[in-house]
Specification:
The chain has 573 residues and is an all-beta fold. The protein has a domain of 88 residues: Macroglobulin (MG2) domain (Immunoglobulin-like, Sandwich). A 5-stranded antiparallel sheet has the order 1-2-37-36-35. A hairpin with a 2-residue loop joins strand 15 and strand 16. The longest helix has 7 residues. The chain starts with a strand and ends with a strand. The N terminus is likely disordered.
Length: 573
């Protein structure tokens, strides 16, 4: 069934932007948790994650149908009917598009594959195949592949074997074409991660050797093209190279070196390029601890601590001279993302709590977008999580926000949208009535839609989307009872055509009307009640469901003099 949330009005959006297709409706993609169980929130949440493009018309994601079914891989074309589980394979961690298919680490207990191996899918059960699996202690293939990166015709990933430890591997999508790239550390783990990045078909990463510690490395996917770039902190001490980012024709990263602390470094991508020290934010021997590097239309932004400051600041660097501090200090910026026209959006904290901020590359243009939750309360999810806000077409930011009215309390957020201005920041919908929240996250843009996971009181945590130009349809919501009665439906769930009854206890006389409604608020059937007032005491009303009613979630709505109570009814297959 289709569930559509309250839209904000297209005319209002057009005041903010000149988008050709403004987003207008918030819609349930599919109630995946209801597919095999009875649609109850407790058992039916699929908790979707890892939305990943498959091709021009489909994407895949992970979402559990129930705790009793094997497999969590789903494919979708953006419609309810076209969103379905794929086989019995359980995907884990990152998924990545490579050469028209999606690769991931997974298992298939139903197929007898218990070890986590490398899998690939084309969106069909028949086309979901095991590329390789490994035995514990085997040097042939690694256990639990992760950290995927695409280098043209190769897919790189990290993997663990007893023989080699954790190292980088490569595959062309076949078992025969899967091999270790280089044993960086023959005595143990050689791959140290360090927020790697791919630039011009080269992967820059942190590698470890006992003689040099953790230092910057690079690979083109071949043994001869894999080497340590420099021993920044000579000897076995670590430089802790990390946050590799391309900007302005340079590779920037953070590393520790004698006499300068942990600071911003840069180099050209050519072999043998000198590594330069950029800025001295922490003083000559102290560290500024730079992090969260991001390129915004050719300008580098990052977060660091400047000399004499107590907290962290937003920094801007245009590749010449010294980096600049943007806006106020000690704001602890997190998760920087490009926002078009050289701007960025990020989370930061001041006396008004953690809010969404914007910077245009000037100190005067670096400020909170709005104090969404007035006072010292957090208006955006404060944890270090990139999933809590999402940039759409460089002109909108969707985020998990709290304003004290639609959402209030620790870890309670609803979906807000902003164009980067206070006037252009609005609630998309109060998905969970009152001060509770749907806690939206795992955002993903596909074909002009924004997909995300949200927790709804009717269906649990399921995939939703915001789509351009789709007609708004009202959603029937259960109303908190304003009637002085206690009631239950028995049995519940109910099968189509079956008899059931409403049991009520009244402590005041009431004249009631009753009806059965679907999730859109459409009346399915009037439910007969005795004429006149029902007296104080216990009442049992026998009713029967229509024989042709579809399975799903419905509500019995009881009304008396404008006061309403709603009871959820699950119609089972």
């Amino acid at each position: 069934m289709m569930l559509t949330r309250y839209p904000y009005f297209p005319t209002l959006l057009l005041l903010f932007f000149s988008l050709s297709a403004p987003i207008t409706a918030q819609t349930l993609l599919r109630n995946i948790g209801q597919d095999s169980l009875l649609g109850t929130t407790e058992l039916g949440s699929s908790s979707p994650i890892e939305f990943t493009r498959l091709n021009d018309t489909e994407f895949v994601f992970q979402g559990f149908v129930s705790g009793f079914e094997l497999g969590n891989l789903h494919v979708s074309d953006g419609t309810e009917a076209g969103t379905n589980k794929v086989g019995t394979v359980t995907a884990q961690g990152q998924m990545i598009h490579f050469q028209g298919r999606v690769y991931f680490a997974g298992t298939d207990f139903a197929g007898g594959q218990a070890t986590i191996g490398l899998w690939v899918t084309d969106g069909t059960a028949e086309g979901t195949e095991l590329v390789f699996a490994s035995e514990a202690g085997s040097a042939t293939f690694p256990l639990d592949p992760k950290d995927f990166f695409v280098l043209d015709t190769l897919l790189l990933f990290s993997g663990l074997t007893i023989t080699h430890g954790t190292e980088l591997w490569r595959t062309d999508g076949t078992a025969a074409g899967t091999r270790l790239i280089a044993d960086v550390n023959p005595d143990g783990d050689g791959y140290a991660g360090g927020e790697p990045t791919v630039v011009d078909s080269i992967l820059y990463f942190a590698g470890y050797t006992p003689d040099a510690g953790v230092e910057p490395w690079r690979t083109d996917g071949t043994p001869e093209g894999t080497w340590m770039i420099a021993d920044m902190n000579p000897g076995p001490q670590n430089s802790g190279a990390a946050f590799f980012t391309a900007s302005g024709g340079f590779i920037y990263f953070s590393a520790l070196a004698p006499g300068s602390g942990r600071e911003v470094r840069r180099m050209r991508p050519e072999r043998g390029s000198a590594i330069e020290l950029i800025g001295e934010g922490g003083g000559s021997t102290d560290s500024s601890d730079p992090r969260y590097f991001v390129d915004a239309d050719g300008t580098l932004f990052y977060v660091a601590q400047t000399e004499g400051a107590d907290g962290l600041e937003l920094m801007r660097y245009n590749h010449v001279g010294e980096p600049e501090v943007m806006g106020p200090t000690d704001i602890f910026p997190q998760i920087l993302k490009p926002f078009g026209n050289g701007r960025i959006v990020f989370k930061a904290r001041n006396a008004n709590g953690t809010e969404l901020w914007i910077s245009d590359g000037t100190s005067g243009g670096t400020h909170p977008i709005t104090d969404l939750y007035a006072g010292p309360n957090d208006g955006v999810f404060p944890n270090v999580s990139a999933e809590s806000f999402h940039v759409y077409q460089d002109s909108l930011v969707y985020y998990a926000g709290a304003d004290g009215t639609a959402a209030d309390g620790e870890f309670v957020y609803e979906l807000f949208v902003t164009d980067g201005t206070e006037a252009g920041t609005v609630l998309v919908s109060d998905q969970v009535p009152g001060t509770e929240g749907s806690n939206p996250g795992n955002f993903f843009t596909f074909r002009e839609r924004v997909y995300f996971a949200a927790t709804d009181p009717l269906v649990g945590r399921e995939p939703f989307y915001l789509g351009p130009g789709e007609p708004p349809v009202s959603i029937f919501r259960p109303v908190v009872s304003s009637l002085r009665l206690q009631a239950r439906v028995f049995p519940n769930p109910i099968r189509a055509g079956a008899a059931f009854r409403l049991e009520m206890e009244l402590d005041t006389p009431l004249k009631l009307t009753a009806g059965l409604y679907d999730l859109r608020g459409v009346l399915v059937r009037d439910l007969p009640l005795p004429s006149g007032q029902l007296q104080v005491g216990n009442h049992s009303m026998p009713w029967q469901l229509p024989a042709d009613i579809s399975s799903g979630i419905y509500f019995i709505r009881l009304i008396s003099e404008g006061k309403v109570a709603s009871l959820r009814v699950v119609v089972a297959e």
